[in-house]
Amino acid sequence: MSGNSVPGDGNIDGNDRAHSPKADTALQGKLDRRLHQTSGWVMTPPQIRRRYLISGRVQGVGFRWFTRGTADRLNLVGWVKNLPDGSVLCEAQGSPDLLEDFLGQLREGPAFARVSDIEVEDLPVMRSPESSFDVRR
User: Fold this and answer.
1) So what CATH class is 48-136?
2) Is 51 a catalytic residue?
3) Which of 82, 127, 136, 137 is an active site residue?
4) Residues with Cβ within 8 Å of residue 41, at least 6 apart in sequence
5) Residues 73, 107 contacting (CB under 8 angstroms)
6) How far apart are CA 37 and CA 31, in angstroms?
7) Sequence spans of domains, the chain
8) Is the per-residue pLDDT at 99 higher than 50?
9) For residue 1, is pLDDT > 80?
10) Residue 82 designated active-site
11) Lowest mean per-residue pLDDT among 36-50, 55-69, 75-89
């Protein structure tokens, strides 16, 4: 045969052309997305919530906006605000892996910040969490 498939050979799209592995992978990806959209069969990872108290030179250097941007990229929800003592307080909710990535980014901070310490506290998960990550005043 000259690379053509036989009718009824399991060719999903009904064409008589042979599929390459790349085409099969692309088709499977489309099917997986459709199943996820319609049946919700993909399990979401467990959620946790943590409070972070960040000390050092973290006010007046864009730390809250950096925190919000990082949380948005990681699809976390929560909030961040400055405290009167010069520290920054933050709560975030998401998967454990993403919150570990978040903590690593908080340790780095924006360019002009100098993080000296971060206290981390586990909190109960909010059943109806925020829908975004907000900067509070």
Assistant:
1) alpha beta
2) no
3) 82
4) 35
5) no
6) 10
7) 1-43, 48-136
8) yes
9) no
10) yes
11) 36-50
Q: What local confidence, expressed as pLDDT, does residue 17 receive?
A: 45
Determine the pLDDT at residue 16.
44
Q: How many CA atoms lie within 13 A of 69 on its CB side?
A: 8
Three-point CA angle 4, 5, 9, nearest 5°: 175
95's tokens: 């998967």
Tell me the average pLDDT of the chain: 82
User: Cβ distance 102 to 92 under 8 Å?
Assistant: yes
Q: Rounded to the nearest 5 degrees, what angle is found at the Cα of 31, between the Cα atoms of 27 and 33?
A: 115
Secondary structure of the chain in the HEC alphabet? CCCECCCCCCCCCCCCECCCHHHHHHHHHHHHHHHHHHHCCCCCCCCEEEEEEEEEECCCCCHHHHHHHHHHHCCCEEEEEECCCCCEEEEEEECHHHHHHHHHHHHHCCCCCEEEEEEEEEECCCCCCCCCEEEEC
* Residue tagged active-site, from 49, 50, 64, 68: 64
For residue 129, what pLDDT band results from cuts at 50, 70 and 90? confident
Cα pseudo-dihedral 59, 60, 65, 66, rounded to 10: -70
Vertex 87: Cα angle to 68 and 63 (nearest 5): 30
